[in-house]
Amino acid sequence: MNFEKVHEKLIKIVGEENVSVDVMDLICYSRDASEIVGLPQFVTWPLTAEQVSEIVKLANEEKIPVVPRTAGTSLSGGPVPVNGGIVVDLSKMNTIIEIDERNFTALVEPGVVVAELNEQLERRGLFFPPTPASDIAAAIGGSIAVNAGGIRAVKYGVIGDWVLGLEVVLPTGDIIWTRKTKARKCVSGYDLTKLMVGSEGTLGIITKALLAVHPLPEARLSALAYFKTVEEVVECVYEAIRRNVDPSAAELMDRYTLIAVSKYTGLSFPGEAGAAVLFEVDGMRESVERRLIMLESIFKKLGAIDYQIAKTPEENAFIWKSRKAALAAIASLRPSFITCDATVPIEKLSSLLNGIEKIARRYDLLIPCFGHAGDGNIHPMILFDEREKSEVKKAYKAVEDIVRVTLELGGTITGEHGVGASKIKFIEAEHGVTLEVMKRIKKTLDPNNIMNPGKVF
Amino acid sequence: MKLNDKLEEQIIRCSRCGFCRAVCPVFEVKERVESWNTRGRILLLRALSEGQIGVTNDLIERIYTCTLCGICEVTCPSGVKVKDIIETARCTFAEQGYLPQTLVNMGPTIKETRNIYGESNRKRALWVPNDIKIPYGGDTLFYTGCVSAYRTTEIARSIVKVLMASNYEFGYLGSDECCCGGVALWAGYKRAFDEVVSLNTRKFEEVGASRIVTGCPACWSVFKKYYPLKNLEILHYSQVFEELIDADRLKLQRLEAKVTFHDPCHFDRTSSEIYDSPRKVLENIPGISLIEMAHNKEKSLCCGGGAGVVWTSYPRLSLLMAERRLKEAKDVGAEIMVTSCPLCYITFNVCKKRKKIDIEILDLSQLLTRAMCAHSTN
After folding, report:
1. Is B252 in a helix, a strand, or coil?
2. What are phi and psi of A296, to 5 degrees?
3. Same domain, B53 and B77
């Protein structure tokens, strides 16, 4: 690669103010929220799909990697340029182009932040249901690239379920729409939208997204219950789903999380509680009230130690206080942490949590667990001090063991964070020969392997 | 560059989640380029401590353009003490002579002249009108602060006028008053700051004060956070105004206006009472309709002044932030933007003039004196 020549051409494509080779920018775009590190040679901030296309064409000519990125909140190293190359930061492409209230769609650029989209939608009585926990910072582009989930996935599914079509710059530079119609149903041809969703920037760069949106529910209230054991919590989640409570969130917090939250916020919880579960139900007011009564009867039947049911938005906010403080509370315990993304069929959830507890004991580490029990997705937080080499080693061993247990239980190495670079070594164990098909698709679309190389497989 | 252990411990606490992207006012006006937000700044300090980069003017700019507004700190899920990081980093930088040209000598200047402008300390009490006599010292001290003592003297006069009209008993230190030291610390002059702290602490003890009423939120926060003032109550004047309103000691007349309140960053975004005081005062002026901006109280947006440090060194950047905030005020239909910080007052007034934004900027005390005038005319 002729560095000067590429630099000059990038300046021609995006303008001098939208390309940088300054070491400060290279450093700032060398990381995401994972442990993965990789310095790019160039950082670019394109403003249009055409500019993105020109960058990709140049990368093809010069055979240099192109690494798309939006907010960089990823927990898997997906937007980290592990093989160097050109970072394409789409943060400046952040326009909400259209909200179509009659057809329940939104057309947005990839740099639009999820919470900003929801702010605009809520003014019109609508919302975009799949909200990753990082929604205040995470952008649509990256969220689609990893097919993010979040707390409401138990009812509303993941981001991919709400993407109707995508404008994508393919690795050859062609700009295509995976499907153009605003119609909810469309079965003509292969479903290229689903192929692009979750492809982590390895098959193309998303430059526009046509999203489905939903009317805001009239009411949204929550209930929190404490149980002696994790098994009881899992049973409670099962019963709630089985009896059609239709929760829009079913969040679990294990004992270590509760202790951390209590220390951090001063909130108290019953001493003998082994775990807690937090449900949210949304919909018409009467329906929400009735479903909360159903939840109460489930709590009683399963012998909850204590429970709280919100009747007002204020009580609701109070109930969520502990769950919202969970990450900060846990993070305050040690200097560093790794967030895992273990996901199993919900029946296996207690086995997973018990397995994680054994791993924590094996390595003498603290691993509080919380997460989306309703879809079997738990985020064990492995706590350590990155300045202590022996602890770092143990922490990464624990990651491997958690992945192994998850796969043994018929789960997946990632439920919503993506494979990125951090889980690449585990993907073969999950997919085996199927991986060959994925590789063939990749080769067909990206013959020069320039699109975010070193990710997924 | 070697950074101290305390700083390094805070730096590694950043999990790079990027939540600061959602709130950093500098990042927003710098077109969302990563090196201008907190995560970027922390990554750069880390690279500096690991020897990956050296100190350059661009790095100095990144470290000194943080407005220390603290909104990232209350948003950070890992509880990273961002303000401590930036303050400590600046002290390390300044010790080795790495700081913006405009701030060179800020520490010694404050130490020698006892104010941030390097003016004679004899001029410090010139703001007091001839027809007013404020006693020296006493149990309750009104602490003017450098900005209102030397520049926004109209604010100091308004505060005093309100206090006197309600027969509130207080004294002051006249030309003996010394800068709180905040700007020295935020410019990176730790030693000068420490000296000012002990000087002021001694003075407050000497005059036997038990209560200090500040005219500036920055001084308020510095006294509360850094001063060893165990037996001294520190209040911002808006809290005293609230007391006076509660005790029905202020007679206010009707004043028709749509008003929004800009919460100064230095109220630290942690205790909610401090945010209620100015609102209670405003709500007690008959005819005032108080409209909240999208970002208010703990989530308020910085005016861009950055405790004077950003305003002095990177005024164009400050004005971009101020413009965004004024637009927010205009968007909710406010005719007057009221604040209770002389620094915000200056930043907004300059921005309003330069960008020709049609909105009036007033300090809370000025609005109150206006309501009191309405009373006396009637």
Report:
1. coil
2. -60, -40
3. yes
Provide the residue count of chain A: 457
User: Hey, what CATH class is A219-408 in?
Assistant: alpha beta
Cα dihedral value B132, B135, B136, B141, nearest 10: -100
Angstroms from A206 CA to nearest CA on chain B: 19
Q: Which CATH architecture has domain A96-215?
A: 2-Layer Sandwich (3.30)
A429 lies within 8 A of chain B by CB = no
pLDDT average, residue stretch B274-300: 96
Q: Which of A29, A113, A331 sits opposite B78 (nearest CB)?
A: A331
d(CA B103, CA B95): 12
Label residue B374 by pLDDT band (50, 70, 90): low
CA pair distance A335, B15, nearest whole angstrom = 9
**What residues in B contact A72, CB-CB < 8 Å?**
16, 18, 34
How do residues B325-351 score in pLDDT, each as one tens digit?
999 999 999 999 999 999 999 999 999
Q: Specify the number of domains making up chain B.
A: 3
Residues B356 and A362: their CA atoms lie apart, in Å, by 66
pLDDT digits (tens, 9 = 90+) for A299-342: 999 999 999 999 898 888 888 888 888 888 898 899 889 999 99
Closest residue in A to B30 (Cα) is A92
Domain A3-89: CATH class, spelled out: alpha beta
> Any idea what the CATH number is for the domain that residue B84 is in?
1.10.1060.10
Contact criterion met (CB < 8 Å) for A331 and B47: no
Query: Which one of B99, B123, B139 terminates a domain?
Result: B99
Verify that B166 and B193 share a domain, yes or no.
yes
Of B185, B220, B242, the residue at which a domain comes to its end is: B242
Q: Which residues of B touch A24 (CB under 8 A)?
A: 35, 44, 53, 56, 58-59, 62
CATH number, domain containing residue B225: 3.40.50.1860
Interface contact flag, A31 B17, Cβ < 8 Å:
no
Give the residue on B whose Cα is nearest the Cα of A76.
Answer: B17
At A254-297, the pLDDT tens digits run: 999 999 998 888 888 998 999 999 999 999 999 999 999 999 99
CB neighbour class for A354 (10 Å; exposed up to 12, middle 13-18, buried from 19):
middle
Chain B residues with CB-CB distance to A under 8 A?
Answer: 9, 12-13, 15-23, 31-35, 39-40, 43-44, 47, 52-53, 56, 58-59, 62, 75-79
pLDDT of amino acid A323: 85
Interface list for A 314-333 with B (CB within 8 A)? 327-328, 331-332
* Whether residue B154 is found in the same domain as residue B185: yes
Query: For residue A399, what are its two tokens?
Result: 């990651």
Distance, CA of B322 to CA of B327 (rounded, Å):
9
Do residues B131 and B87 both lie within one domain? no
- The ranges assigned to domains in chain A are 3-89, 96-215, 219-408
> Domain limits at B17?
5-99
Strand locations in A65-125 (E): 66-69, 86-89, 96-100, 105-108
ipTM, two decimals: 0.94
Q: Sort out which chain A residues have CB atoms less than 8 A from B35's CB and list them.
A: 24-25, 27-28
CB contact under 8 A, A115 and B17: no
